[in-house]
């Protein structure tokens, strides 16, 4: 049960607000909320709806049938059964997959109401650029918070906000495979509309004998936060990050201009959109991405239980696996490794353009080491004729973000020079209830090639992107808050101390990350802020931890205001 009078979101916003080095202005420049005198009248909303072809959608929280006064037992059961799957959420214009930023779930008592809370108030089901342009004009005129929403895959809470009007990009599904030639790339490309999800792109590319870099979760929207934030993939050690694939953007900026951005035209905007974070510089209408020739893909899975061996043996196995990562990923392989206090799992290790015999040869030193340690493991390997076939078979469905998250990029120098220190960090996390996940890849400049983007430079030196997580308890609010404190104050410092000058993947990190400007954007931050000022001069675009977000604060009521420094008081 959550404490009386305190919503999950209310507590969260309080945590966020107190970390900011300023206080909220009470001036009219604060964004309007429902109930304020500045909030548009019903007739004004109706007129706006007519101007956008009747595509305005009022938010009804997904969990509504599970709560009074709208409780419906049959509908509620169906919602509960599907709540942990992305499909339930991305089909809506408001539901967010990270419960920390939500307002109504089906698991707290049905006698309690289902508030809109931190969900967007309205969304526009976009079908043409004019809908976005009119929405920008409306939010600016009435001083309403503006949100870009696609699927709701969002650990950082950027695609939701109290009292907000969102543009919902999910139903833009056009895909065009084309030939591309410029000074930097010649080959096949795919133009993907903003709502195209990973599996859509994989299937379209497969029909053309191609493969496209996309996330491990099939429902992630490729042109949204994935590519704009960097985007790791099972194909990344072969081709680079998602952001490294981008050839061109179509984008509506904060002034309502429809722009083409590539390396020759609006090159600064092109640079910022590829790795500098989503929902910050403009609303992407489409992106054109490199498409690569398909072919053989091999994969393997391995798991063993920690309960059948000693603790020391378990961590010897972990250290042995990490010691071999460089030689594996440098051959074009990606490996996903999940560690808990009861298990070790690789699921999967993916080798694009690598025959199975070669992949198994690369992995054999690890298996030999496990055998010497007396570990009994379950092992499966297979060769496929395409990436889509391997993806469907070996990359398991991923649940929504039901956890508290942290993340850090581990340089290969740590594995080479301080592998024991990494093992101790892993031990401290999983021995205290955390989950330690490594996405082992090589996205160095040698792999990424001729690119021009705002990807955090620490990616180029990394051997792994580490994701830390703790379990989520739907009915224990105090546990959730304590787990978030543990993430920020205990787990993350134990990892960061190994490479304090590295950084974090901005899409999969702690939303309370200290000095997020340096951790998420590094040396690119100042240049990114200049790009934002140029293309969003009215400061319409905001997202927690996004570039420029430190200039705003959000109170426990959801009110968003510009900050006033103490020097100005």
Question: Could you explain the architecture of this structure?
Answer:
The chain has 569 residues and is α+β, with helices and mostly antiparallel strands. The chain has helices at 8-18, 42-51, 73-82, 86-90, 129-142, 198-207, 222-229, 236-239, 267-273, 311-323, 325-329, 356-372, 387-394, 412-417, 419-430, 445-448, 477-496, 516-521, 525-535, and strands spanning 23-24, 56-58, 122-125, 146-149, 165-168, 175-181, 186-193, 210-211, 246-252, 258-261, 283-290, 292-293, 297-305, 334-339, 343-352, 378-384, 403-411, 434-440, 462-471, 552-554, 560-564. The protein has 3 domains: 8-168, no CATH class; 175-293, 2-Layer Sandwich (Uridine Diphospho-n-acetylenolpyruvylglucosamine Reductase, domain 3); 297-521, 3-Layer(aba) Sandwich (Vanillyl-alcohol Oxidase, Chain A, domain 3). The protein contains 19 helices and 21 strands. Helix 10 (311-323) packs across helix 15 (419-430) and helix 15 runs antiparallel to helix 17. The two termini are 40 Å apart. Mean pLDDT is 94; it is low at 1-26.
């Amino acid at each position: 049960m959550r404490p009386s009078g305190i919503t999950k979101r209310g507590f969260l916003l309080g945590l966020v607000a107190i970390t900011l080095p300023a206080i909220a202005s009470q001036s009219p420049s604060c964004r309007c909320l429902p109930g304020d005198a500045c909030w548009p009248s019903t007739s004004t909303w109706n007129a706006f709806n007519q101007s956008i072809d009747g595509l305005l959608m009022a938010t009804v929280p997904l969990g509504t049938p599970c709560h009074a006064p709208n409780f419906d037992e049959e509908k509620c059961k169906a919602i509960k059964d599907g709540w942990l799957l992305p499909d339930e959420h991305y089909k809506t214009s408001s539901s967010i997959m990270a419960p920390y930023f939500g307002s109504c779930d089906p698991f707290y008592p049905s006698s309690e109401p289902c508030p809109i809370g931190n969900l967007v108030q309205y969304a526009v089901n976009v079908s043409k650029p004019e809908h976005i342009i009119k929405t920008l004009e409306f939010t600016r005129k009435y001083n309403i918070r503006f949100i870009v929403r696609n699927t709701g895959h969002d650990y950082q809470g950027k695609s939701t906000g109290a009292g907000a009007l969102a543009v919902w990009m999910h139903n833009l599904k056009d895909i065009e495979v084309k030939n591309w030639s410029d000074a930097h790339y010649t080959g096949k490309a795919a133009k993907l509309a903003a709502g195209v999800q990973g599996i859509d792109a994989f299937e379209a590319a497969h029909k053309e004998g191609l493969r496209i870099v996309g996330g491990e979760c099939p429902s992630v929207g490729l042109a949204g936060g994935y590519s704009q934030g960097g985007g790791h993939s099972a194909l990344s050690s072969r081709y680079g990050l998602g952001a490294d694939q981008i050839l061109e953007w179509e984008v509506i900026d904060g002034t309502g201009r429809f722009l083409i951005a590539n390396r020759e035209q609006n090159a600064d905007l092109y640079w910022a959109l590829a790795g500098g974070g989503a929902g910050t510089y403009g609303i992407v209408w489409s992106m054109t991405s490199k498409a690569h020739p398909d072919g053989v893909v091999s994969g393997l899975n391995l798991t063993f239980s920690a309960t059948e061996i000693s603790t020391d043996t378990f961590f010897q196995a972990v250290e042995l696996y990490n010691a071999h990562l460089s030689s594996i990923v440098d051959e074009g392989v990606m490996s996903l490794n999940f560690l808990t206090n009861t298990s070790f799992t690789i699921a999967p290790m993916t080798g694009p353009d690598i025959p199975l015999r070669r992949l198994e040869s690369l992995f054999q030193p690890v298996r030999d080491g496990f055998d010497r340690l007396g570990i009994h493991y379950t092992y499966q390997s297979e060769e496929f004729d395409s990436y889509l076939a391997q993806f469907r078979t070996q990359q398991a469905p991923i649940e929504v973000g039901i956890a508290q998250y942290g993340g850090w990029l581990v340089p290969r120098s740590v594995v080479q020079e301080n592998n024991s220190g990494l093992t101790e960090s892993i031990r401290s996390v999983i021995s205290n209830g955390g989950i330690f996940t490594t996405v082992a890849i090589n996205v160095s400049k040698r792999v990424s090639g001729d690119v021009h983007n705002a990807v955090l430079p620490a990616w180029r030196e990394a051997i792994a992107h580490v994701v830390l997580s703790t379990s989520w308890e739907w009915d224990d609010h105090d546990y959730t808050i304590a787990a978030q404190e543990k993430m920020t104050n205990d787990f993350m410092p134990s990892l960061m101390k190994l490479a304090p000058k590295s950084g974090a993947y901005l899409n999969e990190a702690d939303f309370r990350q200290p000095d997020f400007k340096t951790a998420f954007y590094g040396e690119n931050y100042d240049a990114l802020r200049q790009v934002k000022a140029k293309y969003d001069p009215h400061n319409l675009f905001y997202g927690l931890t996004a570039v420029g977000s430190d200039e705003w604060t959000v109170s426990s009521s959801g009110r968003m205001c510009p900050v006033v420094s103490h020097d100005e008081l």
